[in-house]
Specification:
Strand order of the largest sheet of chain A: 2-1-3-4-5-11
Strand content of chain A: 15-25%
Number of strands of chain A: 12
Structural class of chain A: alpha/beta
Organism (chains A, B): Streptomyces diastatochromogenes
Number of helices of chain A: 10
Shape of chain A: elongated
Radius of gyration of chain A: 24 Å
GO molecular function (chains A, B): DNA-binding transcription factor activity; transcription cis-regulatory region binding
Oligomer: homodimer
Largest interface: A-B, 48 and 47 residues
Protein name (chains A, B): LacI family transcriptional regulator
Keywords (chains A, B): DNA-binding, Transcription, Transcription regulation
Distance between the termini of chain A: 72 Å
Pfam families (chains A, B): LacI, Peripla_BP_3
Chain lengths: 320, 320
DNA sequence: TTGTAGGCGTTATCAC
DNA sequence: GTGATAACGCCTACAA
């Protein structure tokens, strides 16, 4: 017991005793057993983070920020890669409920509104993303519609009149593509520009490769266009590459704007205009919400929806 | 006890009993307590991964591959971000020894040869990186010298005669920059080309920003050059941007090659020639070595040094 | 100020 | 085939 008191810096230990304990610990190369401490305390000091893959630029950026934010609360982060698959996202929830983690930050990509029921758990969970609003847990999201409208408006202000949208498949109104599509439409309507369905370009996956192909095809034999709003910077990087392949000059003939402000976007040629959703703020809020839940037992009475701020970062790809 | 037998699929449980247990579990919403299981078993099923930051392209790629490889062994991965700082790398070692992790994969960036002593631990550790060779633990490394030589040779074969090296500070012969510098020199010597110290360009940090500045300065008023070997793709991305700022055409006037083959490099304009060090193989080996150590107690008798393979990926930036 | 008792939830062992 | 017992290492509560 005295050893425990020394380890945990409890007062009421005589300096001489403390010294003897420390010496013995050093001599025996003693290490506290974290598993035993966890069992006794009922907490592990670790939170789970479930994201599609840490190597994807946006999720990597977010994971880094979340690990840093968690560290400020004295928490470690264990990462599950879900591959954006619904079943893996549900599995992460299950692990968290097994008290492997004190709480879980879950990026819902594969799960959809129909899975809201799975979130009815007596365990701290914060949802990150667009797929689930109004669920039984706290939620941190991007200002998708407003930011997408701002990005589109920026293209209009720079003189674009036939603006394409490069997005994923528009399925159920609650994914990244659909929400940003809504913002794109809003901006066009507000400016009195027609919405040409031929300029809404869906790619099967939000990858550079798919985006590059689509951009090449559009430039080769698609309808005329003078601007592209890409739903992510990854898509925009692919688009820039595809347009270059087709001999289209950016921003001379076509202006391009992305979304996410990943580190690389400032160094592309041309550098990429984009939306900065303040990843650090989102990470900080997500961890703060989770920590608050970890304080009390049981299901929360009120859920918080935190929508981040954003700013436009104007670079060469929408220059004059 | 019978519950435990059911949960762990032990034989010798009568089907009817198993059924009753399963029903009770469902009724009570029973969850195994992983902390208690860890205490009892003396293992946590989690390994630690200490890297500078998951958001850096190379470490993100590696982390993703490691998480996937660990998953194949039924292990979770908890990530510590060290910021490349020696003290944080040592702290990760300490956590692992506290039995928080069953083992640790440690990317040594801040630690150096002088810290070999810290690795003398009775706990599974695999070192990843260049800083520590011949230590008391297993080690997975890139084929730095050979691959750097191959990259430089490629520039020579493409007609370059004044090849710059864009690297970090060359301090102690056992970091990424120094090892790749050695390969660069080897290739120049083998080709009978002079080694011009003015063409060895150190930047204070291996970032896009620092590289872009250095490339601009070189193009503006440095010595003449017709090729650049960049020690990482990140540095190469910065260099491409800096050269573009200075109005230098790539590959027309100057050819550029990087190292790492990060996802983005294929989509840059111009696309980036680079060295692919087979991240998946490195990750797979690192986890396999760690798992092997986790089998036995105590310090290993023999240490394994695994040096990955590599291949050149030729793209536009070194095209004719 | 120090030390004793007990229990966190699980599972290896062994008796029934 | 089932279950009682004990122990993994720690820390809260309380006694000395």
């Amino acid at each position: 017991m005295t050893v425990s008191n020394v380890i945990n810096d409890h007062p009421h230990v005589r300096p001489a005793t403390r010294q003897r304990v420390l010496e013995a610990m050093a001599r025996l190369d003693y290490r506290v057993n974290v598993a035993a401490r966890n069992l006794r305390k009922g907490r592990t000091g670790t939170i789970g983070l479930a994201v599609p893959e840490v190597n994807r630029p946006y999720y990597g950026r977010l994971a880094a920020a979340l690990i840093t934010a968690a560290d400020r609360h004295g928490l470690r982060v264990s990462i599950e890669q879900t591959g954006a698959r619904r079943e893996n996202e549900l599995a992460a929830l299950s692990l968290s409920r097994n008290r492997l983690y004190d709480g879980l930050i879950l990026a819902t990509v594969g799960m959809g509104p129909a899975d809201v029921g799975s979130l009815e758990v007596d365990h701290p969970v914060v949802i990150l993303g667009e797929r689930i609003f109004g669920g039984p847990v706290d939620h941190v999201a991007m200002p998708n519609v407003a930011a997408a409208a701002a990005a589109t408006r920026h293209l209009i202000e720079r003189g674009c009149r036939r603006i394409a949208l490069l997005c994923g498949e528009l399925r159920d109104e609650v994914d990244v593509s659909s929400l940003r599509h809504a913002g794109y439409r809003q901006a066009l309507e507000a400016a009195g520009l027609p919405l040409d369905p031929e300029l809404v370009l869906s790619v099967p996956s939000l990858t550079m490769d798919a985006a590059a192909r689509r951009a090449r095809a559009l430039a080769a034999d698609g309808p005329a266009f003078d601007g592209v709003f890409c739903v992510t910077d990854t898509v925009a990087m692919g688009a820039l590459r595809g347009l270059a392949d087709a001999g289209v000059r950016v921003p001379g003939q076509v202006k391009v704007i992305g979304f996410d402000n990943v580190d690389e976007s400032a160094f592309l040629v041309p550098s990429l205009s984009t939306v900065d959703p303040d990843h650090d703020l989102m990470a900080e809020r997500a961890v703060a919400l989770l920590v608050a839940r970890m304080g009390h037992e049981g299901r929360p009475a009120h859920q918080e929806e935190f929508v981040s701020t954003f700013s436009l970062v104007i670079r060469e790809s929408t220059g004059r």
